[in-house]
Write a structure and sequence with these properties.
A two-stranded antiparallel sheet has the order 1-2. It has one domain: Alpha/alpha barrel (Glycosyltransferase). It contains 13 helices and 2 strands; from the N terminus they run H-H-H-H-H-H-H-H-E-E-H-H-H-H-H. It is globular and about 50 Å long.
C-alpha cells in the first residue's frame, strides 16, 4: 500500500511540475510579446479604439505578471490623453449615430473603450481625475432615452463593458439598466439565431450581403470576436444576482456554440466565418478574441470544459506557434476594416495594437486554464 501511495504521489508531483512549467513558458511568451510591443510603440498615442483595445490586453498582462513597466506604460498613455476619450464639453454636441473620430463623438463607443482601462487604473489608486470623465460621460448616457448607441458589433466590446465595470465602483443600478436596454436593441438587430453568430452591423444582415459559398450568410470574425470578448467582460463584472444576467449568459453560450462550430482545422477562424473562400488564410484578431472568450467561459464554469477542450487546444496552438513570431510580434492581423476583405494583405508581418491586445487577453486567460 505504501509503495502504491508513493508511486501515486510521485506521479502527481511530476504531473503538476509539467503543467507549472507550461504555465511559466506561457507567462514568458506574454512578457516577450508585450515587451516587443512597448519597445516598438510609444505610449503617447490617442485614446481611440485601436490603441485602447491593446491597453485592455496590457492591463491583463500587468495583473498577471505584476510588471511595473506595464503599469507605467498604461499610465503614460492615460495621462497623455488626460484621462479622456473624445473631449467635447458641450453635451448638446455629443454624437454617436454615425462613425466619427472627431472630438464631438463623445457618445460613440470607439471613443469610450479607454474608460475600461482608466477604471482599472482608478481601482489601483483612487485618484479622482482617473474616473472623472468616465463618470461624466457614462452616467449622462445612462439617463438618455436613446437605446441605439451600439449599432455595430464592435461596440459591444468598446462600450458595453464600461457600464458593468463602472457599476463595480459606483453601484448605480441605472448603469446596468441602460446596459441591458441598449444590448437588447443591438441583439435584436444583429444576432442570427440559426447561425448563433452576430453580424457586424445592419448593412451585412442576410440577404443584404451573401458569401461566395452558395450565397450564404456573411459573418466577420473580428466583429463576432468583439461580441464574445465583450460578453465575457460584462459577466466578469456583473453581480451574480443581477436580474439581467441570465440573458447575457444565454447569449454567451449560444455565441460560443456558433463560434466553435466554424473553427478551421488549423485552429484559427477565417475572416469570413462560414466561407473562408471570401478571404482565405489566417487571421489572428478574431481568433484571439474568440479564444479569450471561450477560455473565460470555461475558467468560470459557464462553458463545459470537456466540450471546448479540442477547440481551445487548436486555437492556442495557432496563437502560440503561428500568430506569435520569433521576435515577439503578433502577425496575421487583418488591418482596420469592417468585413472579410480579401484585398487587405494579412501575413506574418501584419500587426496592429488591437491584435496584440487580443493575443494578450487570450494568453493571460490561458494561464488560468492551464493552472
Amino acid at each position: 500500500m505504501k509503495t502504491k501511495l508513493l508511486s501515486l504521489l510521485m506521479f502527481l508531483i511530476s504531473f503538476s511540475s509539467v503543467y507549472a512549467q507550461g504555465r511559466e513558458d506561457i507567462i514568458n511568451s506574454i512578457k516577450k510579446v508585450n515587451n516587443y510591443w512597448q519597445e516598438h510603440n510609444s505610449a503617447q498615442c490617442r485614446g481611440f479604439w485601436d490603441n485602447a483595445a491593446y491597453f485592455t490586453g496590457n492591463q491583463a498582462a500587468y495583473e498577471l505578471t505584476g510588471e511595473q513597466k506595464y503599469l507605467d506604460y498604461a499610465i503614460r498613455w492615460a495621462e497623455y490623453n488626460k484621462w479622456k476619450g473624445a473631449t467635447q464639453t458641450d453635451k448638446r454636441k455629443w454624437k454617436y449615430k454615425t462613425y466619427g473620430e472627431g472630438m464631438d463623438h463623445v457618445l460613440f463607443a470607439d471613443w469610450q473603450i479607454c474608460f475600461q482601462v482608466y477604471i482599472d487604473l482608478y481601482k489601483l489608486e483612487h485618484r479622482a481625475e482617473r474616473l472623472q470623465r468616465a463618470l461624466e460621460v457614462m452616467c449622462y448616457q445612462a439617463t438618455t432615452p436613446e437605446r441605439d448607441y451600439w449599432w455595430w458589433a464592435d461596440a459591444l466590446y468598446m462600450g458595453m463593458p464600461i457600464f458593468s465595470k463602472l457599476y463595480t465602483v459606483t453601484h448605480d443600478q441605472k448603469l446596468l439598466d441602460k446596459q441591458y436596454e441598449c444590448y437588447r436593441w443591438t441583439d435584436s438587430l444583429l444576432f442570427d439565431t440559426d447561425a448563433k453568430l452576430y453580424y457586424r452591423d445592419g448593412k451585412y444582415v442576410y440577404p443584404k450581403v451573401k458569401t461566395a459559398c452558395n450565397g450564404g450568410k456573411s459573418f466577420w470574425a473580428r466583429g463576432a470576436g468583439w461580441v464574445l470578448a465583450g460578453l465575457a467582460k460584462v459577466l466578469q463584472d456583473m453581480p451574480r444576482d443581477c436580474k439581467y444576467r441570465a440573458f447575457y449568459v444565454d447569449r454567451f453560450k449560444k455565441l460560443a456554440e456558433g463560434v466553435k462550430a466554424c473553427q478551421q482545422k488549423g485552429g484559427y477562424w477565417s475572416r469570413s466565418m462560414l466561407c473562408e473562400d471570401d478571404a482565405p488564410g489566417y487571421e489572428t484578431s478574431g481568433t484571439a478574441f474568440f479564444t479569450y472568450g471561450i477560455l473565460w467561459g470555461v475558467n468560470n464554469g459557464i462553458l463545459p470544459a470537456k466540450d471546448y477542450k479540442n477547440c481551445i487546444d487548436k486555437a492556442w496552438n495557432y496563437l502560440n506557434n503561428t500568430a506569435m513570431q520569433t521576435d515577439g510580434s503578433i502577425g496575421y492581423v487583418q488591418p482596420i476594416g469592417e468585413k472579410p476583405d480579401p484585398t487587405k494583405t494579412v501575413d506574418a508581418k501584419s500587426q496592429a495594437p488591437f491584435g496584440t491586445g487580443a493575443w494578450l487577453l487570450a494568453a493571460c486567460e490561458y494561464t488560468k486554464y492551464v493552472r
